[in-house]
Amino acid sequence: MSKLKAGIIGSGKIAQVRHIPEYLQRNDVELVAICDVNLQRVKKIAQTHNISFATNKQSEILQSSDIELISICTPNALHSKYALEALNHNKHVLVEKPMATNLKDLKKLYKTARKHNLVLMPGHNQRFDPVHRQVKELIDNKAIGNIIQFTSNYQHPGPQFWSVDKENSWFFNQKLSSFGALGDLAIHKLDLIQWLINQTFSEWFVAKNKAHDSRASISLRTRSGIVGSINVSWNNPLQDHRTVLYGTKGTIVFGEELHEVSIHRFNGETKIERIQPILRKDGKPNSGIIDHFVECVKGTESLSIDSKHVKNSLKVILS
């Protein structure tokens, strides 16, 4: 069977640590092209990973008749533009989050994907983390009764410490990023919590330190009465990834320790579950996002990221 041919638009951090290695480890995909405005960088990356074609012209990849799969790993403001072009050239598209910077563009992307019968998927990788999947199973099995409240933190020192361009990263350019920590971090937790509780948010209040935020706190409520908060920051070098889910019979805590879930029941029972990570061939964690995308394209899996969660998450960070 011939391999699916994939191309990547953008060669920044997320492309380098996730999309490139996770495409390359699959036997049924050939990563044939990569694009970036920084031609020198993208040529070096292509040479390192034996990618046959590198360019600084995205149209050469988006319009190529040979390429079937596209990953969009550009600054946020360009996500929907390039995703739409790819869809209109009959490509299945994986778009880093957020898929769009406004609801009109998001709606157009989904409409176009349906029109052409193509897979359109956002990079909400937290759903595929083995720890989060175990938490989902616990919730679905009523391990702590019904969920009534939550708190979730996602805090780290900021893009200047991990992005390829450091202090000059597009994350700090509002014209390119559209959002700060809300678009980088909060959108992950918004999607994760909605998936875990299988509900969307009906009310919310967003407090942020400035228009182009480096830290923010969101208070949320679902129609059924689940309430909670999400706190994100680019200002915490010590990091904080702790999430607590409060149920009618106990609590679930994760993110406090790597690969662990703690279940504390009101009857005094406490259980620590250690979760085996899924590793790539290079020994680093496999996000699962590329695998799910490819399997959806092949028809062996159904797309598990609900568009109503995607829309709801974007509505919140646009507030």
Task: Kindly describe this structure.
This protein has 319 residues and is α/β, with parallel strands linked by helices. The chain has two domains: 4-125, Rossmann fold (3-Layer(aba) Sandwich), CATH 3.40.50.720; 130-280, 2-Layer Sandwich (Dihydrodipicolinate Reductase, domain 2). 34% of the residues lie in helices and 25% in strands. It has an eight-stranded mixed beta sheet, covered by helices on one side. Helix 5 (103-116) links the parallel strand 5 (92-95) and strand 6. Helix 4 (79-88) runs parallel beside helix 5 (103-116), helix 6 packs parallel to helix 9 (181-197) and helix 9 (181-197) packs across helix 11 (307-317). The relative contact order is 0.15. It comes from Oceanobacillus profundus.
Strand content: 25-35%
How many strands in all? 14
Please summarize the sheet with the most strands: 8 strands, mixed
Calculate the mean pLDDT score and round it.
Answer: 97
CATH architecture term of the largest domain: 2-Layer Sandwich
Q: In CATH's first tier, which class of the largest domain applies?
A: Alpha Beta
Order of helices and strands: EHEHEHEHEHEHEHHHEEEEEEEHH
Query: Total domains, how many?
Result: 2
Specify the number of helices. Answer: 11
Please state the structural category. Answer: alpha/beta
Task: Describe the structure concisely for a colleague.
The protein has two domains: 4-125, NAD(P)-binding Rossmann-like Domain (Rossmann fold, 3-Layer(aba) Sandwich); 130-280, Dihydrodipicolinate Reductase, domain 2 (2-Layer Sandwich).
